[in-house]
Amino acid sequence: MAGLNKVMLIGNVGKDPEMRYTANGSAVTTFSLACNRTFTGADGERREETDWFEVVTWTKLAELCSQFLQKGRQAYVEGRLHTRSWEGQDGQKRYKTEVVAQTVLFLGSGPGGAAARIESFDDAAAAGAAGHVDPDDLPFE
Fold first, then answer.
1. CATH architecture entry for 7-39+46-127
2. N or C, which end of the chain has less CB nearby within 10 Å?
């Protein structure tokens, strides 16, 4: 039987995305996403809690996230959880769990205050696409 690993988040970008390229030339962009949750505590007071997630995007999706996301911007992220491990300089094994995004929707205002909203960009489809995504072809409201 197949398993299921799916994550859907809506939150605010915690810092400007960082884009780099792998040795084979693939774009990878990482950013943090803060998701707030409001709840009533046992004492009856309303509280807010923030969960932070590290998001990784690849190829064309990475390029678009680097271009259109910025600190404070709201985004919807859909993907899967992935835990990677490595050995630190001190010899200890380290672990990091990240969200590998497959779809990102840019919500709210974009650069310059324009209400730029990309309805959906599926990285799996982009990975096989040979064409270039022209920013003029993106839907803006």
1. Beta Barrel (2.40)
2. N
